[in-house]
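Sequence design from tokenized structure. All designs in this work follow the same two-part layout: the structure record, then the generated sequence. An example of the structure record is given first.
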């Protein structure tokens, strides 16, 4: 209920249900990777998370349209979204850190360099190189070759950079009250997000079918799919969020000075775009 300048939300069941759904999804993923029979639980967990998100966001939208939120709640939402994006920065920083550690320390040590060069005794014939096509352990097969950064990865880079531009135009149009312009440019952004996902799916097919680049292709294959796969998941989530914003635009949920739902979605999308630029440079190019 609303009292004075501070809004106290009603008791909600969504946090605990969301936690249970997330736990079920992670348990299913672990069972699938280790034992190969966790797919049903994984699928149920994903479906439950999507359902909780949809119903939880529905309640938030209803509260907003009822005029229950004030300046204090707006600040709360902004801080919450800011910390969420910061957590995502740390999430990807860990993966980039793993890439940096392998390339800068682990491989040179296995080749006899540095203070821990004694590790070279494990595989004395190993020669460090990146991308690692020939892992030191003969029981692990590396990829036959790696994807060229100037083909599909470059296409996806242009797609995402363009999508940031179209989203910015949509945002500016919304602030100026040009709802039709906002809707059209936002629809273009959602379309570009879908194109990125399709291109990445085709890239994965090419990697598996013609390059021998799989999750089992040594440390390079593992890091490649870890970084690009999680990013692809974030693009998918971001495209869904923008699609929801598009529906809300069509239903006149936003005004020029009251549209933080749209703004938060834009923050998230721009973050995803920046991460991709880093991936393009350090996974594909260098």
């Amino acid at each position: 209920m609303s009292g004075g300048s501070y809004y106290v939300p009603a008791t909600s069941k969504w946090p605990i249900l969301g936690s249970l759904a997330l736990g079920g999804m992670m348990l299913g993923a672990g069972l699938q990777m280790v034992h190969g029979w966790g797919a049903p639980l994984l699928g149920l967990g994903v479906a439950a998370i999507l359902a909780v998100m949809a119903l939880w966001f529905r309640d938030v939208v209803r509260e907003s349209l009822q005029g229950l939120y004030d300046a204090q709640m707006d600040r709360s939402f902004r801080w919450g979204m800011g910390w969420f994006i910061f957590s995502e920065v740390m999430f990807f920083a860990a993966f980039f850190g793993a890439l940096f550690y392998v390339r800068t320390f682990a491989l040179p040590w296995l080749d006899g360099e540095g203070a821990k060069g004694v590790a070279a005794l494990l595989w004395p014939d190993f020669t460090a190189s990146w991308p690692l096509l020939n892992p030191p352990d003969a029981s692990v097969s590396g990829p036959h070759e790696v994807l060229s950064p100037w083909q599909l990865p470059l296409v996806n880079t242009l797609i995402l950079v363009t999508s940031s531009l179209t989203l910015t135009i949509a945002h500016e149009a919304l602030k100026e009250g040009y709802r039709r312009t906002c809707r059209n440019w936002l629809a273009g952004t959602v379309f570009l997000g879908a194109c990125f996902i399709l291109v990445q799916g085709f890239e994965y097919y090419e990697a598996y079918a013609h390059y021998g680049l799989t999750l089992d292709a040594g440390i390079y294959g593992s890091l490649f799919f870890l970084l690009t796969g999680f990013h692809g998941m974030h693009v998918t989530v971001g495209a869904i969020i923008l699609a929801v914003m598009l529906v809300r635009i069509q239903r006149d949920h936003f005004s020029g000075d009251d549209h933080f739902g749209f703004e938060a979605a834009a923050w998230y999308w721009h973050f995803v775009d920046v991460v991709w630029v880093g991936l393009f440079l350090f996974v594909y190019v260098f």
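The longest strand covers residues 2-3. We note this feature because it recurs in several other targets discussed in the main text.
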